[in-house]
Amino acid sequence: xxxxxxxxxxxxxxxxxxxxxxxxxxxxxxxxxxxxxxxxxxxxxxxxxxxxxxxxxxxxxxxxxxxxxxxxxxxxxxxxxxxxxxxxxxxxxxxxxxxxxxxxxxxxxxxxxxxxxxxxxxxxxxxxxxxxxxxxxxxxxxxxxxxxxxxxxxxxxxxxxxxxxxxxxxxxxxxxxxxxxxxxxxxxxxxxxxxxxxxxxxxxxxxxxxxxxxxxxxxxxxxxxxxxxxxxxxxxxxxxxxxxxx
Length: 246
Ligand SMILES: [Zn+2]
Fold this sequence. Notes:
By secondary structure, this protein is of the alpha+beta class. The chain has helices spanning 62-80, 106-112, 131-136, 147-159, 166-173, 190-209, 220-238, and strands at 14-19, 23-26, 35-39, 50-56, 84-88, 91-95. The chain folds into 3 domains: 14-95, no CATH class; 106-173, no CATH class; 195-245, no CATH class. The site of zinc ion (ZN) has 5 residues, from loops. Residues 1-120 form the V(D)J recombination-activating protein 1 RNase H domain.
């Protein structure tokens, strides 16, 4: 793209890595139950979401991203596995920290969980579906991918223990192609929200075209013709390729 001004070139993209204290719980000595004494009401507000690191880097630049974030991850892992013991007001208190990675966009999740980039056949960051499978079955997604499994799959990808071909190996690890370096908390991201909404509306429009409310049991042929009518309009008026909406 066009350059403005002089000086060294900097990436035109930036990544902000920030954290929010979501909740604080206390458990008294000898008690089973925790009592939550604080819950952040506005976790996305810039007042509560504190930047830890703001860097000029393209998130798809794996080397720079891991280079900059790795000290943060190492610190976080160390905090996860240890307890801080402090004397507060004369009482020894033990502190534990729980981390939850969330709020990353799809591209970032792919990058930090070691998945192939967005154009991948393995279209989803939450489950193992392929693009082709997803276009056939757009109904429900359940979350089946996990950070642990991505790590195991990376080991398989790296070592190829069954001496498979590149294609077979890729199929086995479902598009894991780099070492996952940060655990994300699997939640619905914008992509899945869009797929879900699109699917729902796609069904509703078909039923409306066929005036389903007047019919008890439409045949498959009827349903097919409603879908064809909708697809035709989507193609013609909205310039969409219906099967490619994924
Ligand atoms: Zn999925």
